[in-house]
Amino acid sequence: MTLKPKSRLRRLLGLSSSRDRRILSDEVPEAEVSSTSSGIASHASVDHSEFEEDPYDDVRDRLEDLSARDRSRYAAHSEPQEHAELDLPPFAAYTTYLGYAVLIFCGHVRDLFARLLGHGRYLRRKTPFPSDNLQLFAPLLKSWENFYTRRLYHRIQDCFNRPIASNPGASIQVLERVSDDGNKTMQLLGSLKDLSSDRQKNDYASKSHFVELSDGRVARSCLNLGSYNYLGFGDDWSITCEEDVCGVLGDLPVSNSSPRSEYGTTVLHREVEEIVARFLGKEDALVLNMGFNTNCTTIPALVCRGDLLISDELNHTSIVNGARASGAAIRTFRHNDVKHLEDILKEAIIMGRPRTRRPWNKILVIVEGIYSMEGEYCDLSNIVQVCKKYGAYIYLDEAHSIGAMGPTGRGCTEYCGVETADIDIMMGTFTKSFGGMGGYIAASKDVISYLRRTCSGSSHHNSLSPVVCQQVITSFKVVMGEDGTNIGRQKIQSLRDNSNYFRMRLEEMGLHVLGHYDSPIMPVMLYNPTKIAAFSRECFKRGLAVVVVGFPAVPILTSRARFCISAGHTREQLDRALVEIEEVADLLKLRYAISTFG
């Protein structure tokens, strides 16, 4: 039996009694959930003749063939779908376990000698602070967490959290850091005068990527292959956004210092919500001041005890935290495995809740548009079909796909040919494609009205900065073409071309590359823990700023480097980076796709 839109909405919000229904605003009219097209009809490639020149003219046909192949396999399902997960080479698995075993063994030996000799970087010393008395206060970290941080993470801490001194565009200036205690702490180098010897000064000054900032600080000019700048607003901000954004400062403060329900709502907040809802074809939207907290605070408002939440096993930590905070029962299904999802839904409906066997109040399925550590897009069309078949609600996290997928940048729904009306809750962020901060929830008017009152991110947290609101509004207008130019279309096409070209060349090198074509995220498998730091440092020497990821962010056997491509990159920049990456791949033996030993 098909539920009426209003009764389906009340089930989603958990409103069963007349008293509960009064939570909904009396001002909100009864609204039918309309089916609004999201531009899904156009999957054809953009006519490149309308742009001045095509930098990928010599490989255009091949790029389009590879894109069409993955789209037909994983989005349209017109071709048989191949198993997306790469097989782990046995040699890589053995050496990875051996590498961690050696690190752990050496760490314990060093801890032992530190206790015996009474000397060591991490030896706990008596202090006058009462919090250091473990007879009165519990330790902040468990013994294993403490050990992992001390003996494994700190060894390669220089590869993470590198500060920059420029706009986060295609090219960045990374500040140099030094450590005099074996990476336990890191300090900015400052100027060359801070170095102790002339030889060290000459070493820095002779590097091809060395730059000296206006205040004398030492930095390294690097090609940015790691941060989220999908549509390149970090590169042309002064052309596309600066005038509108800086103009807001004359009328509104940088921060309202208040929640939306008190003094935190301005005309710009309402305009952002209107343009987001219009862009996605939804009735209304709610904007929050932090992307991570959008999931963390919205999910507990939607589900609670007596509800069932079914989550993809590779969903982001913000979804995991929100699910745990909700009090709902949680089940996970294998990544992008629609058959496993259907089996869980069948069992949940037949068996009901544990012990009592009563039916679940509601079932919410949560997936992502693009999975940030895999570079794969969601099998959205099949997941939506299964959810509709069993009456489950669907929550789509488009943090990485909004603006970055689809002919007009409307995300995974547009790319996979799914109507936005079939998605109950659409979530996304403004940090990846739009050069801002914060996140949004797009849904029906009644759902958004309910969330404004019950979601702690809206009712208790500070509202989004008015300056950031204007940044989001301006960038959305550029993407939608409402600025009177075709810059938005060029950005979307450039991102797609740059991503597909970079992925194609990495695969030609024989590297293990995860993900699908048309995704701007390209994870390259490193496997061995020693190669995490080696890859990052070797790339940094060559003027490439890359992101490396290891345990516990990913499983212990699947350490990787993650490239994030931008519309701001040029082909010449990508070609230079590929030459350097190929050199590093030979040095570190990373060609696992063509050789067991790399």
Overview of the structural elements:
- The chain is an alpha/beta fold and about 600 residues long.
- It has helices at about 5-15, 20, 60-75, 90-115, 145-155, 200-205, 235-240, 240-250, 265-280, 290-300, 315-325, 340-350, 380-390, 410-415, 445-455, 455-460, 465-480, 485-510, 530-540, 570-590; strands at about 170-175, 175-180, 185-190, 210, 220-225, 285-290, 310, 330-335, 365-370, 395, 425-430, 440-445, 520-525, 545, 545-550, 560-565.
- It has a 7-stranded mixed beta sheet with strand order 6-12-11-10-9-7-8, with helices on both faces. Strands 1, 4, 5 and 14 form a 4-stranded mixed beta sheet that branches. A 3-stranded antiparallel beta sheet has the order 13-16-15.
- A hairpin with an 8-residue loop joins strand 2 (about 175-180) and strand 3.
- Helix 17 packs across helix 18 (about 485-510) and helix 18 (about 485-510) packs parallel to helix 20 (about 570-590).
Defining traits:
single chain, 598 residues, alpha/beta, 4-stranded mixed β-sheet, 39% helix, globular
Helix/strand/pairing category:
alpha/beta
> C-alpha Rg, in Å?
26 Å
In terms of per-residue confidence, which ranges show pLDDT below 50 for 5 or more consecutive residues? 21-45
Residue share in helix: 25-40%
Q: What coarse outline follows from CA principal-axis ratios?
A: globular
Instruction: Tell me about the largest β-sheet.
Output: 7 strands, mixed
Measure the end-to-end span: 56 Å
Rounded mean pLDDT score? 88
- Placed side by side, the strands forming the largest sheet appear as 6-12-11-10-9-7-8
Total count of strands: 16
Give the helix tally: 20
- Portion in strands: 5-15%
